[in-house]
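pls design
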């Protein structure tokens, strides 16, 4: 067998190691783990995919009959895929700060995975859908139990009712100290602004209050 001819047919071997766009710039000095949480079908995978500067890792699988009677599809009847483990992405907010994004599965039967995903996370973005506000209550409760700082982002859906922020805050019993903003998870700029809101919130929580004389 002519090995040289075979090598010519196969072409040159791809270079080993990560792709150029996946390599962190040498100026990066801080990396922060952030989780994107919310109920089933609120847009977590969409947000990670829209804002990530690297090719996002997703674990979406086609929904099957096995989930019938277990997963609540009210309001998202047309959904055909679901995250079964996590989504992962990365975004550089500036030359020095990088956020590693972990999207959690929304179905309650996969919530046992949250413990590992929350390990080492400094904060969270809670995506909510005003058509199904009730699916966010348990999510926020779990964050409060873990004492994980978070911001709430009201994801824009074309047919979703619009309510004043004050009414939504009251419905979810959110204290004024928790930032709450509008967001379009499909839009990179909007998703980035949401993450910046979380970073500012985290900084405000760690700011040292000067002692009164």
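designed seq:
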């Amino acid at each position: 067998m002519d090995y040289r001819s075979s090598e010519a047919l196969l072409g040159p071997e791809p270079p080993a190691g990560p792709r150029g766009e996946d390599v962190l710039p040498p100026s990066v000095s801080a990396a922060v783990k952030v989780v994107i949480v919310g109920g089933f079908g609120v847009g977590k995978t969409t947000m990670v995919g829209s804002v990530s500067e690297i090719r996002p890792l997703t674990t979406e699988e086609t929904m099957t009959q096995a989930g019938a009677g277990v997963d609540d599809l009210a309001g998202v009847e047309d959904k055909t895929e679901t995250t079964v483990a996590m989504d992962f992405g990365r975004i550089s907010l500036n030359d020095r700060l990088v956020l590693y994004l972990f999207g959690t599965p929304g179905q309650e039967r996969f919530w046992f995975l949250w413990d590992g995903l929350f390990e080492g996370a400094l904060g969270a973005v809670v995506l909510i859908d005003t058509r199904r506000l009730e699916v966010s209550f348990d999510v926020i409760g779990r964050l409060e139990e873990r004492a994980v700082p978070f911001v709430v982002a009201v994801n824009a859906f074309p047919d979703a009712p619009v309510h004043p922020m004050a009414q939504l805050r009251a419905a979810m019993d959110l204290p004024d100290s928790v930032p709450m903003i509008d967001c379009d998870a499909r839009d990179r700029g909007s998703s980035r602004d949401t993450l910046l809101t979380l970073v500012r919130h985290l900084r405000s929580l760690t700011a040292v209050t000067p002692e009164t004389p």
